[in-house]
Amino acid sequence: MDRIRIRGGNRLTGEISISGAKNAALPLMAASLLSDAPLTLGNLPHLADISTLASLLGVLGVEIAMEGDAPKGGHVGRVLTLHARKITSTTAPYDLVRQMRASILVLGGLVAREGVAKVSLPGGCAIGNRPVDLHLKGLEQLGAAIDVQGGYIEARAPKGLTGAHIVFPFVSVGATENLMIAATLARGETVLANAAREPEVVDLANCLVAMGAKIAGIGSGTLTIQGVTSLHGASHEVVPDRIETGTYALAAAMTGGDVELKGADPAQNEALFEKLREAGVRVTATEGGVRVTPGRGRVRGVDVMTEPYPGFPTDLQAQMMALMVIGSGVAMITETIFENRFMHVSELSRMGAEITVHGASAMVRGVKALAGAEVMATDLRASVSLVLAGLVAEGETIISRVYHLDRGYERLVEKLAACGADIERLSN
Ligand code: UD1
After folding, report:
1. Residue 45: other Cβ atoms inside 10 A
2. What are the backbone dihedrals phi and psi of residue 29, each rounded to the nearest 5 degrees, phi first?
3. Nearest C-alpha to atom 24 of ligand 1 is from which residue?
4. Would you say the CB of residue 103 lies under 6 angstroms from ligand 1?
5. What is the mean pLDDT of the chain?
6. Which residues contact 71 (CB under 8 A, 6 or more apart)?
7. 112 lines ligand 1 (CB under 6 A)
C-alpha cells in the first residue's frame, strides 16, 4: 500500500489550482439517470470516488464517455458525457455501493425513471453510523413502497412518484439531493422544507433546471419542485471544490505561506475565512480566486462549531484542528454533524498535539512545535489533517493508508510539492 512521506518545515508559496468539487460531481453524475439524452459534465475531478460511481452507473446501463480536458485552458478538468439511453439494470450491487456511501444517490433517479430500484444499503462508515432513513422516508412520502431485505433497499412505484410536502427533521445533504432528483419526475408539486443549502446542492439544482426540471427556491431552505414528464440533456460545469480550497488555505496558514488558490470561489468559504481572519491569517479575494498570506505572529486559537452550510463545514473540521494545534492559546472545536469524527485526534497527538475530547467537543491547547511520526489515515478529511500537520512537523512524517486521500484530493502530493513542500508518495 502506498504511503506519503513529508519532511516538515517548508513554507508554501505559489499557486494551487482548485479542482471541481467531488461532492457536487457525484450527485450530478447520478442525475444522468433521469434522462435518455446525454448529460455532459465539465470540470470533473480525477478521483477514485468518481471512478467508483462511473462503474456503478455503467452497471445500470449508462454509457460513459471521457472527452479529455476541455480546450478552454485554465483549471478545467476532464469532461465526461453520461448517456442513460436505456436503463439496463435497476440493481446497485453491494460490492460497488459498499466502496462509497454516495452510491445511495442512484436510488432517487432509478425509482423516478423506472418505477423500481434495488440498492444495497451503504453500511457502516468510519465517521459514524450515517443512516439513510431520511432518504427512504422521503421516497415513501413520494409514494414509493420501500422494503429493506437482505441488505438491500427495494423501492417500488410502478405508477410513478407523486409530489408531496416533505419536512426534514434535520439538514441532510444527501437526502435533499436524492429527493430533489426523484421529485423532478414526480406528478405534481413537491416541497422540500429544511433542505440543505450547500453549494453542491445548488449546483445539482442548477443542472437539473438546465435539463428541464422546474425548481424554485434554489439556495434556500425550501425547494419547490414541479414535476415534469421527462428531462432532456444538458451541459454543465462542476463548481470548484470548497473543501479542497479550505484545505489548502489551512495548509498555507499553517506554514505561514503565501498561496493563491486559483479558481476558488471565496463566497463558498465565508465561514472558514472568517475564522482564519479571527485567528490572524490574511485572506483576500483575487481576480482568479483567493490569496492566503500570514498575519503578524503566531496564529491565535479560535473556537469553531461545525454546522450545515453556510456554517463551518464538518469536512474542514479536522484540518482546522490541525491549524489550532500549532496556534497560541486554546481552541474549542465542536462537531455537531457526525458523531465519532475525531479519529484524527489520536494521530495528531502522536505528533505532539495536546487535545482533550469531551463528547462532541475537542479542546486544543496550542503547542509551539510538532514532531514527525508514523501515522495512519482513517478517513478522507482526517487523513489530510495529518498531511497538514506533517508540513510543519520537525523531521519526517509517514502517512499510511493513502487510498483515503485518493478518494477526494486530486494530485495532492503534486499540488503541495509545486508550492515548495517536501512531500512524496512512496509506492510499495
Ligand atoms: C455529505 C457529504 C459529506 C459531508 C456531509 C455533511 C457528499 C458525497 N458527502 O454527506 O462529505 O460531510 O454531507 O456536510 O456530498 N443522516 C441521518 N439520516 C439520513 C441521512 C443523514 O441520520 O437519512 C445524518 C448523518 O448521519 C449525519 C447528518 O445526518 O449525522 C448529515 O448527513 P448528510 O448531510 O446526509 O451527509 P451526506 O449527504 O452523507
Report:
1. 23
2. -60, -40
3. 130
4. no
5. 94
6. none
7. no
Which uninterrupted H or E stretch holds 5? Answer: strand 3-7
Task: Name residue 211's beta-bridge partners.
Answer: none
The Cα diameter of the chain in Å comes to: 65
Mean pLDDT within 257-275: 97
pTM of the model: 0.96
**Which of 311, 254, 260, 319 shows the shortest CA–CA distance to 281?**
254
For 43-56, how does the pLDDT look when each residue is reduced to its tens digit (9 = 90+)? 999 888 899 999 99
Rounded distance between C-alpha atoms, residue 116 and residue 157, angstroms: 6
Q: What is the pLDDT of residue 74?
A: 40
Contacts of 210 (CB under 8 A, 6+ apart): 234, 235, 236
pLDDT at 261 over 90: yes
Rounded Cα distance, 318 and 382, in Å? 6
Cell of 87: 436503463
Which is the catalytic residue, given 65, 125, 369, 426?
A: 125
| Rounded Cα–Cα distance for residues 314 and 25 (Å) | 19
The 10s digit of each residue's pLDDT in 404-416 is 898 889 999 999 9
Q: In degrees, to the nearest 5, what angle opens at C-alpha 265 toward C-alphas 262 and 269?
A: 120
Q: Residue 69: is its pLDDT beyond 60?
A: no
**Which grid cell is 327?**
496556534
| 33 pLDDT more than 70 | yes
The CA distance from 85 to 39, in Å, is 11
- On whether the CB atoms of residues 309 and 196 are closer than 8 A, the answer is yes
Pocket lining: 364 vs ligand 1, CB cutoff 6 Å? no
- Pairing mode of beta strands 289-293, 304-305: unpaired
Nearest-atom number in ligand 1 for the CA of 23 is: 15
> First CA to last CA across the chain, in angstroms?
6
Q: Using CA atoms, how far apart are residues 364 and 84, in angstroms rounded to an integer?
A: 49
List the grid coordinates of 144: 414509493
SS3 94: helix
Asked whether residue 66 carries a pLDDT value surpassing 50, the answer given is yes
